Amino acid sequence: MGQKIEVLVEGGKATPGPPLGPALGPMGVNVAQVVKVINEKTKDYAGMQVPVIVDVDPKTKEFTVTVGTPPTSALIKKELGIEKGSGDARKNKVGDLSLEQVVKIAKMKRENSLSYDLKGVVLEVLGTCVSMGVTVEGKDPREVQKLIKNNEITLPNL
Question: What is the CATH number of domain 3-67?
Fold first, then answer.
């Protein structure tokens, strides 16, 4: 049985300091080596908080690093190049995604979703757009959800 550490790190910028160093130090693993692996695996998520799980075998001091995907809202903010969502999503819109961008985010989130297919994950991403004040191709995301459910919009690259 290994010991497991779950942390949130900024993509590509993990350091041997807290929260990793103090948690890994007592396990006897090479902290710098673990940090290097985490940074290599999370470099595509630069600027975003990424969930990371480090499994350590206390006998052999070997470790495995599993990287999750950032929250959907973080992926939407990265696509739009914005700092935060709308404080009042009904009145203030902060950006507009293309349907292709929504599908791209859905593909990243697919493994962590409870949906059976990509269409369901796309609908989940659109739901997050609603709460963030983000439109999709100039429309309210709820309208786009309805069009997808009624098969009036066919999703690209499924």
Answer: 3.30.1550.10
